[in-house]
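Troubleshooting log. The previous run stalled partway through. Resubmitting the same two chains, unchanged.
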Amino acid sequence: MSKRPLILLTNDDGMTAPGLRALVDAVSSLGEIIVVAPDTPQSGKGHAITIEEPLRIHEVNVFDGIVAYECSGTPVDCVKLAKNVLLKERQPDICLSGINHGSNASINIIYSGTLSAAMEASLEGIDSIGFSLLDYSFSANFQDCLPYVTDIVRHVLENPLECTKLLNVNIPVGQIKGVKICRQAEARWVEEFQEGSDPRGEKYYWLTGRFESLDQGPDADVTALQNGYISIVPSMHDLTHYQALDSLRSLEKIELNRVSEI
Amino acid sequence: MSKRPLILLTNDDGMTAPGLRALVDAVSSLGEIIVVAPDTPQSGKGHAITIEEPLRIHEVNVFDGIVAYECSGTPVDCVKLAKNVLLKERQPDICLSGINHGSNASINIIYSGTLSAAMEASLEGIDSIGFSLLDYSFSANFQDCLPYVTDIVRHVLENPLECTKLLNVNIPVGQIKGVKICRQAEARWVEEFQEGSDPRGEKYYWLTGRFESLDQGPDADVTALQNGYISIVPSMHDLTHYQALDSLRSLEKIELNRVSEI
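Second attempt completed without errors. Output:
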C-alpha cells in the first residue's frame, strides 16, 4: 500500500471506554487514525439507527495526536456519519470497532452495537472487524491481547478480505493459545427480569440473564474461546435461511386456494 | 390443534399504529390474542435491547376485547417481557410482528425493529412472522392485504415451520398477484445527512436516503415485490459466512508468526 491506510475506529461503549483507547494503542502505528464514537454508552443497541431526531458531532481531544469525533447517536449512526459527513472525500481502508467490554461471540452478535457498527461499514464495501474481550468490567485488562489485535489488523490490511467483508473477533481472558477461524455457535440467553419499585412506587422490570451455549462443536466460536483461542467468525448481512426455501413452497399455493374459494 | 392457539402480536411502530390494528383484525379469529407493543414508535431500532435502564408495562384498552400491554422499551424488549413476565405460564404458539408501515425487504431486515422482534421470538423456538407493507405512510391502506395475512398465518398454524422459525413477509401495494418464496435481495441505502441549525444555532445532521437494489435475480424478494407478489424470505440468526471460512485460514498462523518473532 503506497499511502498510509485510513483506519476508522468506533465502538459501542462510548468515547471514554478503556477498550477504545486500547484499540487506538493497538493500531495507531498501522495508519492514519480517525475515531468516530458515541458520546454515551450504547451497549446492546444492535443495528439501531436514529431516524426520528437529528444527530450531533463534536470534535474532541481525547487521544493524543489522534483525530476524534463524538456523536450523539448509535454505533451504526457513527459509521453513517463518518462515511457521509466526515470522510466524504476519502473512504476508510478498514473499519475497526471495539474493543468491546464483553463477549460478542455466538448469538451476541445480533444485539451488539460493536458488531453492528462494523457490519454497517462492511455494507459499504469496507473491510471491517469487530473486536471484543470476554470481560465485561470497565477495568478489564486489554494489554495482553493488544499484540494479537495489531497482528490481525496488519494481516487484513496486507491481505484484504475477499469472500466476506466482516470479521467478528472475540478474545479470551488469560493466556492466549492462538487464533481459530470459526462459525457462530448456537446459543441463547436465559433471561429473567428483576422486578422492583421506583421511588414513586411504580413497578419496573430490569433485564438480566445468563448466556447458555447449546453447541460444543469443535468449529464453534464459543468452543475456541473456552479452549483459550481467539475466535474469528466471518460474518454477513444476508439472513436468508437457504436450506429452508424448499420447505416453504406450499405457501406459494395460498393465492390459488384463495381464488378457488371465491 | 385441540386448544385455540395463543398468538403474540407486536410491532415497531407502536401500540397506536394502524398497521398493528390491521394485524389484529387479520388474525383475531384464528386464536387467543395478546398484544405486547412499544408505547412509542421504534422504527429503525434493529435488535436493540434496553440494559441501562428499567422497563415499564401497562395494560391498555385499545382493541375491543383483546388483551394488550404497552411497554416502554424496544420491540425486542417487548418480546422478552412477553415471554419472561406476561406469558411465563404459557408460551405463544406463534409471534406476529407488524404490519410494518414500509418495506423490510432485502437489507432493511437488519435495521428493522419489526423483524428483530420476530427474530427474538424465533430464538425462543416460537414460529414467528414479520409482516410489512410497502407503504411508509401512517394512513397506508392495509385492507387489501388482510386476507393474505390471515391465510399465511393460518397456513403456518396448521403447518408449523420446520427448517426455519422466522419468515420475513413483505407485501406490495396495489393488486396482489400471489406469494413467492424468496431470498433476501442484495441492496444498499444511498444515504446523506440533511444538515441544519437548531433553534440554539447548533449544527445538526438528520439521516435521509434512498434504497438502491443491486439485485435483479428472479428469486430475490425485491424482484417478487416489483412484480406484484408477496415475498416470503425464510430468515435466521446465524450470520456466519460459511463460504468465507476457508479463505481466512492464514489468520490462524498469526500466533505462530508472533512466536517465531520473539
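Takeaways: The first helix of chain A runs from residue 18 to 27. Chain A has one domain: 6-184+217-261.
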